[in-house]
């Protein structure tokens, strides 16, 4: 790989498995590639052995540990991609919010956004290397350690989802309408905050790609809450700008573009719009009907969408569910995944059954076509 087109100034090992990149680009694949959201994490015993009692955000800031956690599922399973171990909430911290607790252990932020005045103390014009350099260092290290086995995902949260966390401080308790109320009561401040988040997300993705990420995903975990009207007014234009902004920046830097995935959970009403928003892949949650999504998405590659709770089923039931999923999605322009992240008490052996079934059945389907 020539130095002028590598993401980082140093060369990385040639890629041995480019299945997921070909699928993302819409190229023909001999079998369906598969990876899982949250594939590196709490359901793996080796994760707990490596992490021990290190706090979550401290873990994210330790490139050596992040590298180990990222590669663990690749060592255990026949996956077609790794995804860097990190969190979407690092961006609000870099923009000026103060961490109070790790996610799941109480309110994440000590100073959430409560009014338009609070937006003024935030900024996307921060030093990305000093604030988020640990992410980029971990990506480069992990890319080196992977030695070309599989591509490495970078990722970020989408602006609306980050805004919801910043306002509702989600782990503080249920405030299901607080952020949406902020949108309609304070539209000017909302556009300002979403615009800052858009800039931060775009810059963060570009720097991840520059560090070595070969594919990236934008997680819009709370997109469905907006409904068609608010999603189209506030979030969809921002998502489009992120896709364009990343590609434009990479072009200016003479860096090869990488596939981009958008995952807008529960935004079934926006599949067609998302397929035209500049992303190479549209991720689907488990409540979306694959055949319907195919009709709406046209030629864009789709990703998803087995219900994560199906991994609690018997291995035979998992295999049947995979076979049904593949029949509906087809084996081309498709990346198999769950409809959301792996649940923390999932049996790793059942994860392996899911992954192997995707490969086996899709290869058989391709051979018979």
UniProtKB/TrEMBL annotation:
EC number, UniProt record: 4.1.1.37
Pathway linked to the protein: Porphyrin-containing compound metabolism; protoporphyrin-IX biosynthesis; coproporphyrinogen-III from 5-aminolevulinate: step 4/4
InterPro entries linked: UROD/MetE-like_sf, Uroporphyrinogen_deCO2ase_HemE, Uroporphyrinogen_deCOase
Major localization class: cytoplasm
GO terms of biological process kind: heme biosynthetic process
Matches recorded under Pfam families: URO-D
Intracellular or extracellular location(s): Cytoplasm, Cytosol
Subunit structure: Homodimer.
Name of the protein: Uroporphyrinogen decarboxylase
Lineage, opening ranks: Eukaryota, Metazoa, Spiralia, Lophotrochozoa, Mollusca
